[in-house]
Amino acid sequence: MTRRQIHLAAHFPGVNNTTVWTDPAAGSQIDFSSFEHFARTAERGLFDYLFLAEGLRLREHRGRLHDLDVAGRPNTLAILTALAAVTEHIGLVGTLNTTFNEPYELARQLGTLDLLSNGRAGWNAVTSSDAFHGANFRRGGYLDHADRYVRASEFAEISKALWSSWRDDAIEADAETGAFLRAGAIARVRHASRLFDVDAVFDVPRSPQGRPVIVQAGDSADGRDFATAHADVIFSLHTEFADAQQFYRDVKGRLAAHGREEDSLKILPAATFVLGDTADEARERSREIALAQVRPQTAITYLEQIWNRDLSGYDPDGPLPDVEPDTGVETAQGFAGRHAAIRARVGKLREQAAAENLSIRELVIRLTANHTFVGTPEHVASEIDRYVQERATDGFTVVGHVTPHGLDEFADRVVPLLQERGSYRRSYDEGATLHDLLGLPAVRERVTAP
């Protein structure tokens, strides 16, 4: 029986508490050499693509920069463009917002990257509706929360129309005059709604893959509907096996309504890993890494975002706060006005801490630093393969805990074992696009030029 092939993406770390900056091996999150090393490692490991997260504003907590944030965040498209020049095969995916960008300009930027990289570009389409991020654009709170996926869906529709508006034979070479554009080879794209009014003739030719791959990370009902209508990949948080299988069935089951097949959408959950020569060594390493990822102040900060109170007087290694949360104003986690929801969440946290006898720090570790795969390389490879063969996922987005060397050990010790199982490629096919690497069907959407 033919084995299902594993798809792997590589997540460049740095914008959450996964990254351990105190590790002696930690490097810069802004030097190009870090991005280059990471990209070359991912390409050496034959990954489908590397993935850059991006935030539109440095996070704040109690009037100060958030404990888990980093101050340096170079522009995603600039980094990916530079990486296109030092890699040959790997896909290049960036997180770019549908709320505070405009379809034509973003489609033009991504289309340019896709063209210049010979079809290796991808777009992680994310939404925002909160005033905190909007303040950077003088649009604070201008988009209703309910409209975030309405705008995202229209944004994707317009972008795909622009990318597909060139005929494949639009440009013809001429020995005397040079390349010229065939008459009627580009279709005009029109879209009028309460959110957008676009009347455009696109100026970027099609890439070898037709258009950039679209990745999506939302998990709400609207997010899942957006993914099944527009996305090629879902970056999910469902990593527990049974939960992952349920998510897989739900999302893949929605595809038929859009005329799509199971393999037209790949599900690649985020996955952390800790390796050891023995199971015991791996578990001990996991414990040490988790303690470094969730420092005492990190644990208190995490709870303060939920309680919306100053909890600095509580011992991180002691029990959960005995005070009730302040539900009167919006918190950093976005629970504005939802008093019952906040109290319900706090109640569940208290129940979990009591049932497992967890301190504040231990609880936060359990919630944010519970590593997906812990064990020998053989065990980790076996588990990754099991998830894919039994249709819990199509693969994983691998997240290391050190910048930029967090992927090295996985590429060196786990990838060869996946290859031995016959579940993972041994080389890149020459000229393969990101669509090809992911095993996606050919791009079908086309706009017929007059």
UniProtKB/TrEMBL annotation:
Record flagged with keyword ATP-binding: no
Domain of life: Bacteria
Keyword Flavoprotein: yes
Record-annotated Luciferase-like domain positions: 25-391
UniProt-listed InterPro entries: Diverse_substr_monoxygenases, Luciferase-like_dom, Luciferase-like_sf, NTA_MOA
EC number(s) reported in the record: 1.14.-.-
Keywords, comma-separated and alphabetical: Flavoprotein, FMN, Monooxygenase, Oxidoreductase
One Gene Ontology MF term: monooxygenase activity
Sections of the chain in a coiled coil: none
Family, per entry: Belongs to the NtaA/SnaA/DszA monooxygenase family.
Protein name, as recorded: NtaA/DmoA family FMN-dependent monooxygenase
